[in-house]
C-alpha cells in the first residue's frame, strides 16, 4: 500500500509540500492557528500578544494598519460588534502541528517566507445576525529571542460587504434605541 501522498515532496511556482516545509513555515502555521483560536474566543489581548511591535494587518479592502497599538485599537473596535466568531480554515481538516518538527498537511500553502490559508469565518454580530465570509489569510512571522513566534504581517482578504452591512445595521438599531 502506498504511503500517504500528502507528505511527498512537490515543488511548483515557489510553493512547497509538507515534507519540505521549513521550521519557520511550521512556526508561522502554529502562530496563525493560535491567532485564529484567540479570535474565536474574542480575545483581543491574546491576539495582540502574538503581533510584533512593527506588525502590519490588512482586513479586506480597508487601509493597512501599521504597528501593534493601531492593530489592537482597530480589533477592539471591530470585536465590540461581535457576540461570536468562528474560523474554519483548510488546515483544520487535519490536526494542526504541535511542534515545528511535526509534518504539516499540504492543505495550507507554504511559500518561501509566508503561509497562506483558505477558510471561512462565521461572524455573529450582537443583534444575532450571522454572516459567513470565505477568506484567504496571508501570514508572515519571525522568531522571538525566546524561540516563540511573532506575527509581522497578516493580510485577511474576502468579501466583507455583508459583515459591514450587518455592523452598520447594528449601529443603526443602537442609534434608534438611543433616540427613543
UniProtKB/TrEMBL annotation:
InterPro entries: NTF2-like_dom_sf, SnoaL-like. Coiled coil: none annotated. Residues 34-140 form the SnoaL-like domain. Gene3D superfamilies: 3.10.450.50. This is SnoaL-like domain-containing protein. The lineage of its organism: Eukaryota, Fungi, Dikarya, Basidiomycota, Agaricomycotina.
Amino acid at each position: 500500500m502506498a504511503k500517504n501522498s500528502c507528505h511527498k515532496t512537490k515543488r511548483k511556482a515557489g510553493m512547497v509540500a509538507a515534507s519540505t516545509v521549513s521550521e519557520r513555515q511550521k512556526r508561522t502555521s502554529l502562530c496563525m492557528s493560535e491567532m485564529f483560536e484567540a479570535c474565536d474566543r474574542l480575545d483581543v489581548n491574546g491576539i495582540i500578544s502574538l503581533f510584533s511591535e512593527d506588525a502590519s494587518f490588512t482586513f479586506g479592502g480597508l487601509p493597512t494598519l501599521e504597528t501593534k497599538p493601531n492593530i489592537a485599537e482597530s480589533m477592539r473596535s471591530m470585536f465590540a460588534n461581535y457576540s461570536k466568531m468562528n474560523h474554519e480554515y483548510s488546515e483544520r481538516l487535519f490536526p494542526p502541528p504541535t511542534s515545528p518538527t511535526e509534518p504539516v498537511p499540504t492543505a495550507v500553502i507554504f511559500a518561501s517566507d509566508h503561509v497562506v490559508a483558505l477558510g471561512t469565518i462565521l461572524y455573529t454580530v450582537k443583534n444575532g445576525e450571522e454572516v459567513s465570509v470565505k477568506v484567504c489569510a496571508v501570514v508572515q512571522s519571525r522568531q522571538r529571542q525566546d524561540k516563540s513566534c511573532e506575527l509581522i504581517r497578516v493580510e485577511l482578504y474576502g468579501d466583507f460587504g455583508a459583515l459591514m452591512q450587518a455592523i452598520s445595521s447594528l449601529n443603526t438599531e443602537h442609534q434608534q434605541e438611543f433616540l427613543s
